[in-house]
Amino acid sequence: MNHTHKEVLASEVTHSNLSHYEQAVERFSWKEIESHFTWYDTGKVNMAYEAIDRHVAEGLGDKTALLYSDSSREEAVTFAQMKEQSDKFGNVLRKYGIGKGDRVFIFMPRSPELYVSLLGTLKVGAVVGPLFEAFMETAVKDRLEDSGAVALITTPALLPRVKREELPLLKHLILVGEDIPEGEGLLNYQKEMEQASTDLQIEWLDREDGMIMHYTSGSTGKPKGVYHVQNAMIQHYYTGKVVLDLREDDVYWCTADPGWVTGTSYGIFAPWLNGVTNVIRGGRFSPQDWYNTLAKNKVTVWYSAPTAFRMLMGAGSDMISEYDLSHLRHVLSVGEPLNPEVVRWGHKAYGQRIHDTWWMTETGGQLICNYPGMAIKPGSMGRPIPGVKAAILDDQGREVPPNTMGNLAIQTPWPSMMRQIWNNPAKYEEYFRIPGWYISGDSAYMDEEGYFWFQGRIDDVINSSGERIGPFEVESKLVEHPAVAEAGVIGKPDVTRGEIIKAFISLREGYEPSQELKDDIYRFVKEGLSAHAAPREIEFKDKLPKTRSGKIMRRVLKAWELDLPTGDLSTIED
Ligand code: WTA
C-alpha cells in the first residue's frame, strides 16, 4: 500500500486520489489474502497458531508481542514466551477435559494472564467468551447461563459476582492473583501453570469451527451471543494491513478492553496476525496516563474511540506538548459517530487526521473505513474496504439513490461475518431478512462518491461512550427495584458520551419521587448490572406511554425528551 495520506491531509476533501481506491477494489481477491495463512497449504486452522506460534517458527520469537502496563505492573512478553505460556494454559484446560467446542469465559481486568489464557483457550479449540470486568451479578449470570460455559477464568475479587449455584454447567473456575480461596471447582492459575507442560498439541480446526463469542445488546430481549468462527482471521489480518496500516516495526495500541469486540478483533487478533508489538494499558482513562502510554512506548498506530478523543479534546491541547508523540503515524476511531470537529482538532493537536472506521460486533471486523490512500471527508465513516460491498436499502430491500437515508446493509458474505446468534436462530435470521444482505440496524446515506454517512440507529439501541446498551436489559433491572412499577429507557444526546441513559419511571404505590430514590435506583442498576448501564438521568412519571399490548413506547419517551412531535399514537393504550 502506498502512503498518500500525508498529502491528502493538506485539504479536507480531495477527489484526486479516488482512483487509488477504484484500483484497489478492482484488483482485490480474498483468495490472495488467504494464501498468507499456513492453513492455505496445510488445511490446519487455529487462530492462536497464526497469531503467535507461526511468528516463533519464522524466527521472530524474541520480538516483543505484548507491552503490558498498569499502575502497579509493567511487563514485556515476547512471542516465544507468549507461545510457551499459552501452550501451558492449553494443557491446564486439557487436564480438566476441556476441549474443542466447549465455551470458556474470561472475566477479569486486563493483565498478561488474560491474553495468555485467551490464546491457550483457542489452542485447545474451545470457544472463548471475554466479559468486561465491570459486569455485575446479573450481567455475568445471563451470559454464562446462555452460553453454557464450562469454565471461567476470573480473579478472587470478582468471584462473588459469579452465582455458581445457579450455573450448574460451570464446573471450573480458574483464579488469577493472590490469596486464592480453596473449594470445589476452584483452581489456582499460578499453581496449575507451574505444573503444566510446555508441550502442547494444538487442536487443528476447520475454518468454520467456533472461535469467539461476544454478547451484545439489541432493543429487545436479553443480550445475544454473537458467535464467530476461525475464518474471521482473514478479515482481521487483512484490515490490520490496509486499515490499521500495520508494518513490521510498528508499536500498536488499541485502547479497547477485550470484553468488547474491538478489544479482541483489533486488540489481539489483527496486531498479532500481523506480527506487531501490541501495547496494552490496564486501568482507567486519564489524559496524562494515555499520553504517557503513547510517549513511553513510542506508539506508532493508535486505535481508540470518539468519546476518548472528545475527553482528550476537553483536557486541552496544552498538555500534549509535555509528551513526545512524534512516533505516531496513524490514528483511528470506532464505536460511535466521529464528529468533524474532533477530526479537525486531532489534526491540529497530533498532526494526524483521525480515521473513522465503521463495523459492529456482528460483522467481526472493519467494513466501512477511512484508511491511508483515501481522501477523508470529516464526518463520513468512509468507504467499504476492497472486497466488501455496502449499500443503502429501503425497507423492501431496494437500493436507494445517493444522498437518501435508509438501511445500511452489507452484501453477504465477508470472512468475519458472524455465523450464529447463540441459541437463537430466529434472531440470526432477522439480520439477513433481505436475501443477499446483512441489515445492520444503522441508518445512513451514501453520497455520489460512495462515502457513507451515519445517521442513527433504527432500533432503540443506546450507544453511550461507544458501548452498546440494550434498553430492555436496563428496564428489566429497573423493575426489580422495589419502588419501580414500570420503566422505559432511552438514549439522551450528550456532548461527551454521545448518548447517556435516561430512564422514565413510574413508581409503585407508597413511593414518592425524591433525589434519594433516584440515587438509590441508580446504585441498584450499577451494582446489579454494570456502571455503564446505569441511568445517569431519571425522570418520574405517573404513567408511561404504552401500546395496547402493554409495550412501553420508547419512541414517545424520546419525543418527549427531545421536544419532538410524538408521531402516530394510534396504538397507544389510552
Ligand atoms: C455504532 C463496535 C458511527 C453503530 C465495533 C453500530 C458507529 C454500533 C461507528 C456497533 C462509526 C460503530 N460511526 N457509529 N464509525 N462504529 N458505530 O457492536 O451504531 O459495540 O451499529 O461494535 O456502533 O457497536 P458494537
From TrEMBL:
<dbReference type="InterPro" id="IPR020845">
    <property type="entry name" value="AMP-binding_CS"/>
</dbReference>
<dbReference type="InterPro" id="IPR025110">
    <property type="entry name" value="AMP-bd_C"/>
</dbReference>
<dbReference type="GO" id="GO:0005829">
    <property type="term" value="C:cytosol"/>
</dbReference>
<dbReference type="InterPro" id="IPR045851">
    <property type="entry name" value="AMP-bd_C_sf"/>
</dbReference>
<keyword id="KW-0547">Nucleotide-binding</keyword>
<dbReference type="GO" id="GO:0003987">
    <property type="term" value="F:acetate-CoA ligase activity"/>
</dbReference>
<dbReference type="Pfam" id="PF00501">
    <property type="entry name" value="AMP-binding"/>
</dbReference>
<keyword id="KW-0436">Ligase</keyword>
<dbReference type="InterPro" id="IPR042099">
    <property type="entry name" value="ANL_N_sf"/>
</dbReference>
<dbReference type="GO" id="GO:0006085">
    <property type="term" value="P:acetyl-CoA biosynthetic process"/>
</dbReference>
<keyword id="KW-0007">Acetylation</keyword>
<feature type="domain" description="AMP-dependent synthetase/ligase">
    <location>
        <begin position="55"/>
        <end position="422"/>
    </location>
</feature>
<keyword id="KW-0067">ATP-binding</keyword>
<dbReference type="Pfam" id="PF13193">
    <property type="entry name" value="AMP-binding_C"/>
</dbReference>
<feature type="domain" description="AMP-binding enzyme C-terminal">
    <location>
        <begin position="473"/>
        <end position="551"/>
    </location>
</feature>
<dbReference type="GO" id="GO:0005524">
    <property type="term" value="F:ATP binding"/>
</dbReference>
<comment type="similarity">
    <text>Belongs to the ATP-dependent AMP-binding enzyme family.</text>
</comment>
<dbReference type="InterPro" id="IPR000873">
    <property type="entry name" value="AMP-dep_synth/lig_dom"/>
</dbReference>
<protein>
    <recommendedName>
        <fullName>acetate--CoA ligase</fullName>
        <ecNumber>6.2.1.1</ecNumber>
    </recommendedName>
</protein>
